Amino acid sequence: MEAKNSKKTEYQDAYICGDCLDVLRGVPNDSIDLIMTSPPYADQIKDYGDVVKKIKPDDYIDWFLPRAQEFFRILKPNGSFVLNINDKLDGRYQNIFVFKLVVVLCDEVGFHLVRDYIWHNPATPPNVFSRGTMGRTKKSHEYCFWFSKSEQWTFNMDPIRKPYSKSMMDIIDGKVVERGGREKNSRPSRHNFDLSHPWDNKGGADPGSVISVSNTASNGFVQKLCKEMGIKHPARYPEKLAEFFILSGSNPGDIVLDPFAGSGTTGVVAHKHGRQYFCIDVNPDYQKLGQAWIASISEEE
Ligand SMILES: C[S@@+](CC[C@H](N)C(=O)[O-])C[C@H]1O[C@@H](n2cnc3c(N)ncnc32)[C@H](O)[C@@H]1O
Hints:
CATH superfamily of the largest domain: Vaccinia Virus protein VP39
Largest sheet: 8 strands, mixed
Oligomer: single chain
Number of helices: 8
Number of strands: 10
Bound molecules: S-adenosylmethionine
């Protein structure tokens, strides 16, 4: 399934309706560059319609495992799988099925954990578990686990660099050379810095592993589209989150799969950035919504 210089297959620039397990069984081995997805969370309070059953935390790994085995099979050897997921409070404590799932994905499926990222949502409202009586703060982050299939994976730092701080710009511009070499610039940690010469300007700083994006776009284009189509998706993730992983984990022309695509955010971002999208969702309404959103991007071009 070559993306370039060949006829498109049914999986390139497509949004298919079905259980991803069934759809993916028909996808060839080693054919997908990046999987970026957010599956339904355990015991989700979100309603994805009659076609989606709730999965209990204790059953989650058994439900996810055959799908993860398909993800592994269809990824190219240098492909990656980014899993956005959240855990939940189970009675008094935080259920640890997410952490068990990460172990199973590595030990049983064969993935390697490249980096655990945090999606920090600064706009998370407090909820019933976080008003003091339950002995904890609100939870204002979710996880994004980046897995690779092998020892090599696509990674582009440049598109996700963040602007340098003022003090970093001073080092790059050679304004602090009088502060001297490593022996004069050590931190309480084991780090030390040679400031005796200007540093290279790489176009921006390493963004680190915390992605801070609010999920508050309530008046956006999609909201309008949902209203017009009479379809509401309750758990859209922000385009900026998908963008971080699509830009760093794939190249233009690559195939980006979202097996739990919902409103089509992953497909939209992939399409905007010259990747080929492959979306799947079991709910036909979300397929219609996603297709309409992606089509609106094509019309803008
Ligand atoms: C958390 S939402 C994904 C939201 C998406 N990231 C977005 O921005 O709109 C999870 C989606 O998984 C879908 N889903 C649940 N079980 C599925 C299955 N077995 N196969 C495919 N899709 C499924 C649900 O219909 C829901 O839209």
